[in-house]
Amino acid sequence: MAKEHRTMIKDPTQARSPVEWQVRFREIYDQAVAAYKGGVRGADQMFSAETTAFLAFIGGKPQELYDFVEDWCEVGEPSFETVLEITAVRHDFFLQEQRCEASSNVISADSFPSPGASLGSLRWLPRIIAKARAKLRGELPPDLMYGCGADRPFLRKVGIHPADFLRLVWEAGEDDQQILKRVEESAKLLAKS
Questions:
Q1: Taking residues 148-169, what's their average pLDDT?
Q2: What pLDDT was estimated at residue 193?
Q3: Neighbours of 57 (CB within 10 A)
Q4: Measured between alpha carbons, how far is 127 from 117 in angstroms, rounded to an integer?
């Protein structure tokens, strides 16, 4: 019987096929859900050094995954599929824009727009735009979450999936007016349906 041979990939871009990293990500997510249900609390307690290294390898952070797991276990959302789609957008940004070089910058939670800030007639939009930009760059502070319990109702109200909103923000760059226009168009379509 032949032994299975695995090659360690030295070039991170070669190890990021959707199937390869997504299978491992699912395993980690499922283990984290089981750990949370078993009473484990906190990203530091939940994730090993190996898991933390894998998350960094795909552009992720333990705290972000912990927050998704906590929300799933406590309120039943977001689903794994949504978490995977959000993570895939971050992963793509990490590969394409950051060339697999994680940002060392972490934005202070105090520098984000207040929850009551508005753009156009949409309260929360400035805050979620800033959070999306920070999520894309891997610069969210540990006490903020993209896709949190306030982001999800806002995105449902305007008819945009959290991963699609990330892609919209990526595409728009720093053009808040382009984002506003697309969000307003989506909200109008949703209202007509």
A1: 98
A2: 82
A3: 18
A4: 7
Q: What is the pLDDT of residues 12-25, one digit of tens each?
A: 444 456 688 999 99
The tokens for 128 are: 């979620």
Decide: helix, strand or coil at residue 82: helix
One-letter-per-residue 3-state SS of 26-37: HHHHHHHHHHHH
Q: What average pLDDT does this structure show over 82-92?
A: 98
Report pLDDT for 142. 96
- Cβ-in-10-Å burial (0-12, 13-18, 19+) of 120 comes to middle
Q: What angle do CA 94, 54, 26 make, to 5 degrees?
A: 95
Residue boundaries of the structural domains of the chain: 15-102, 103-193
Alpha helices for the chain (secondary structure H): 18-37, 43-46, 49-57, 62-75, 80-96, 125-137, 151-158, 162-172, 176-192
Tell me the CA end-to-end span of the chain in Å, nearest whole number.
60
Closest CA to 107 of 72, 83, 142: 142
Is pLDDT at 104 greater than 90 in this prediction? yes
Q: What percent of the chain lies above the pLDDT cut of 70?
A: 91
